[in-house]
Model the fold of this input.
Amino acid sequence: MIDRRTLLAGAASLALPASAQAAPGLKEIAASKGLVFGCAAATYEFGNGDFAPTLLRDAAQLVPEYEMKRDVLEPRPGRYDFSALDRLSGFARRNGLSFRGTPLVWWHSNPPWLAPALQARRDDRLMTGPIAALLKRYSMASVDVVNEAVAEDGNGLRPSVWLDAFGPGYIEMAFHAARQAAPGTRLVYNDYGCEWGSGDRIRAAHLKLLDGLLKRNAPVDALGLQGHLWAFRDRTDQRKLRDFLQAVRDRGLAVLVTELDVDDTGGPADIATRDRAVADEARRFLDVALDNPATQAVIAWNLSDRYVDAPQDWKLKLLNWRYRKTLYDAQMRRKPLWDAVARAFAGARARY
Ligand code: XIL
Done:
């Protein structure tokens, strides 16, 4: 991915042909129910001429795929590089899309200088500085203030530079800093695992975390479910998901599906079969997620399989495996997943 980014960065043009806004897309179907459909995109993807027109047909909201990560934003201490984010947010503004941020505080994708700096001086500003800088520079509909703070096995909090430096209180510190910088932006706690059938402990850990934050008056507005689904592995248990989302709603929080894609690892070589399973799993998930009135937006984690990294696993590499996770194939043709998302929106009850 890095190669393509570098290769295409220079060529990338964010200009658009006039045909871009022609046919109705997911955004209209979602909007007819009071829902938002958005998509993550990376700057290098705009280097292909078919990317922006397709994105604009479907997406009402744009999310930076990697450009807001701390290692890209602040490669050297104190020197912010907003160039890639400026391009994405400029594209969104010019084309009438809202902008959503992710992530402000994450255990991953931090620059190498950050951990030693935090160890040397436990200075809040190493966390709150970029929160304020980003929220003041960009107008965001919502933002993932803290991403993936719960341990993968649901047992307490995940080890991170933030937990090391500030203890568990880092989460509410981040939310307070975000609220102060952008009172009108919806503040999201974002994570994965609550979607999966196996996620009992993770769901319980999230409710506990949210209860603690709400009890201490941390300004959390919504839970972000990443929505990285599995077509052939850990499928959604609809009843468990329904109960969990009800519990989130009972706490007065909104729900956003922030990174929807469907991993087809474990499926057969036959592409049509995988595409059907991917679409079916999305339908099973969205039917439940959209049935809860607290759920207000669905963001796809990338538009097209063209931009999904090849697998790392050597067995899959030998098979020349290409993932079928997203709405469009590498030739920018709609896949059954697109239809499944469209149908889920069309069948959702209206929010007004
Ligand atoms: C990933 C991006 O897709 C990559 O391009 C980047 O290098 C690392 O981050 N969960 C998240 C997202 O919350 O921010 C991650 O995005 C994927 C997993």
Q: What stands out?
A: Residues 65-66, 102-103, 109, 147, 226, 259 surround XIL (CB under 6 Å).
